[in-house]
Amino acid sequence: MSQYESEISRRRTFAIISHPDAGKTTLTEKFLLYGGAIAQAGVVKGKKNTRAATSDWMEIEKQRGISVTSSVMQFQYEGFCINILDTPGHQDFSEDTYRTLMAADSAVMVIDAAKGVEAQTRKLFQVCVLRDIPIFTFINKMDRDARDPFELCEEIEKELGIETYPVNWPIGCGKEFQGVYHREKQEIIHFSGGGGAKAATATAISPGDPNLDSLIGASLHSRLTDEIELLDGASCSFDLERVRHGKLSPVFFGSALTNFGVEPFLEDFLHMTTPPLPRHSSEGPIASDDDRFSAFVFKIQANMNKAHRDRISFLRVVSSRFDAEREVYHVQGGKKLRLSRPQQLMAAEREIISEAYAGDIIGVFDPGIFAIGDTVCTPGAKFTFDPIPTFAPEHFRRVRSVDTMKRKQFLKGMEQIAQEGAIQIFKTPYSGMEEVIVGVVGTLQFDVLEYRLKNEYNVDLYIEGLPYEYLRRIHTEDGAPVREDDLILGSDTRLVEDYKGNQLLLFGSQWAINWTQERNPKLTFSAFEGGNA
Ligand code: G4P
After folding, report:
1. Rounded distance, CA 363 to CA 349, Å?
2. Per-residue pLDDT at 271
3. Distance 266 CA to ligand 1 centre (A)
4. Which residue among 113, 176, 282, 521 is least packed, with the fewest CB closer than 10 Å?
5. Which letter does DSSP use for residue 141 in this model?
């Protein structure tokens, strides 16, 4: 294997998803700790208000305790080069999660052992299913009173419609949590230590060992024996192929806070998940070992650092090696260019890099040339990766600047945030540029918009609710735009345009869609189906 191939084969790129508070940040921090990427706990997330989570860039995240944007971190562990993509925990930002999943090869779903499947887990999980990617489950907080592990697995299967395979099994929970039994290795990993220590001390011991009674207590021992028997009889067999197609989720139990089970999880996970997977393009699948360098933009974020006023585009390298010295071809822009200040991120720290391999995520300084989904590749190659779909907005508001003198900043901010994919913007015919109709998937996105316009562009917004819930694109028979006078619209329907000039209708109800269709039989309307544009 050449050095180049071995670099690619040791890459693992995954996203972490969870309902807020399930322990995603804590688990990420422990991974970084094991990988030596950070030296002490509390760097990514400290006790409240002592140190801000380094993966939380935006002030609003700190204020509201939610993760709004996804961040990217790279670290090394036992020969693997790992790229973790953090995702927003709140379902209002599930579109951002979806885009992040496009850049990942698998997902780790963190579940709170006392709560099981929560509302946001459900929504985020549906987003994972859209992408068909392998999902690994980490059932966290076993050091607290937890629900019955059988019940938890059953709930995941029932609620999320994916089969589960417990790779390890917890021994007790809460104060009695003693460790986990590894089913394949048939050994008990008994823990001691933990807390602030870098790693909990684990002692491997076989279930038949006569010392086990004294180690975990006779009653937990006999319960474990019974549960394992039940588990071996009831659960399906482990099938890596089904895992890789997102049909079977390997389940691990542990406690991120006290380090129980984190390292064994990381080790198993890294061996079960895949090296960088191919991505589909206009020329068919592009594999990681393709000779041509290629990457796509999956995320754009402006003003991450207010002092720099910069805009960073994040690219997932799909194939070959990125060399900062060489020019690349931006297919959508039709231009050769050199990626400016390519960098990798360790939470908020940025490091300028000279090379990257398939599987890696690089951030590049972007003067406004890239859009989400764009392809860059070796000059000479001209394929484009499949576009990243957008979700149908469900909430609409009319937005304008309180101060009319700030029109320029207002538009700049609105366009920038729309280019990031954080909102969708529309205008009404003849309304000029004074006001914009904003569509979002979740209403928290309005709060982020308001905050960012104020904070980054110094513009106060006047926001007014609109009674629409559905957006449909208009198609005419000859492809020409429809004249407003030719449209028969009810009072709860409104004609808008997006910034590419596409005509769309906003509807207040499903009923209004049918009514409008009946009265305008020559037009066809297309929906954003299954979350896709
Ligand atoms: P999130 O990113 O998924 O939103 O969750 P995060 O890691 O921030 O964890 C949420 C809370 O749960 C934190 O407590 C964290 O310390 C706690 N936690 C995480 N993993 C475990 C675990 O394995 N066991 C226990 N007992 N608690 C865990 P907090 O009080 O809300 O925040 P902080 O004061 O610790 O920052």
Report:
1. 12
2. 93
3. 19
4. 521
5. -
**Which stretches does DSSP call E strand in 292-346?**
294-302, 311-319, 321-323, 328-330, 335-337, 340-346
| Integer Cα distance of 75 and 55 in angstroms | 14
Ligand 1 in contact with 120 (CB < 6 A)?
no
Ligand 1 pocket, mutate which of 17, 18, 26 (most atoms under 8 A from CB): 26
Alpha-carbon distance of 20 to 188, in angstroms, equals 31
Q: Output DSSP code: residue 175.
A: G
Rounded Cα gap, residues 90 and 17, in angstroms = 10
Mutate to test the pocket of ligand 1, among 16, 21, 124 (most ligand atoms within 8 A of CB): 21
> For 335-340, which contacts have Cβ atoms below 8 Å and span 24 or more sequence positions?
335/369, 336/379, 337/369, 339/364, 339/376, 340/364, 340/365, 340/366, 340/367
What does the block give as tokens for 442?
Answer: 């979740």
Consecutive 10-residue runs of the chain (533 residues): their mean pLDDT? 86 91 90 74 45 47 53 87 84 82 94 90 78 92 94 92 94 87 89 54 77 85 90 85 93 92 92 95 96 94 70 92 93 91 66 89 88 95 90 91 92 90 86 83 88 90 94 91 90 89 92 95 77 35
Distance of alpha carbon 466 from alpha carbon 130, whole angstroms: 30
Cβ(144) – ligand 1 distance below 6 Å? yes
Dist CA 159 CA 63 (whole Å): 32
pTM for the model: 0.85
Of all protein residues, whose CA lies closest to atom 36 belonging to ligand 1? Answer: 47
**Alpha carbon distance, N-terminus to C-terminus of the chain:** 41
Q: Longest Cα pair distance anywhere in the chain, in angstroms?
A: 87
Nearest protein CA to atom 18 of ligand 1, as residue: 23
Pocket test for ligand 1, best of 47, 85, 257, 259 (most atoms within 8 A of CB): 257
Distances (CA, A) of 244 to 136, 164, 274, 288, 402: 10, 13, 8, 17, 51
Nearest-angstrom CA–CA distance, 446 and 427: 17
How many angstroms is it from 16 CA to the middle of ligand 1?
Answer: 15
20 lines ligand 1 (CB under 6 A): yes
Which helix or strand (DSSP H or E) is residue 192 part of? strand 187-192
- C-alpha 40 – ligand 1 centre gap (Å): 16
CA-derived radius of gyration, the chain: 25
Q: Which ligand 1 atom sits closest to the C-alpha of 65?
A: 4
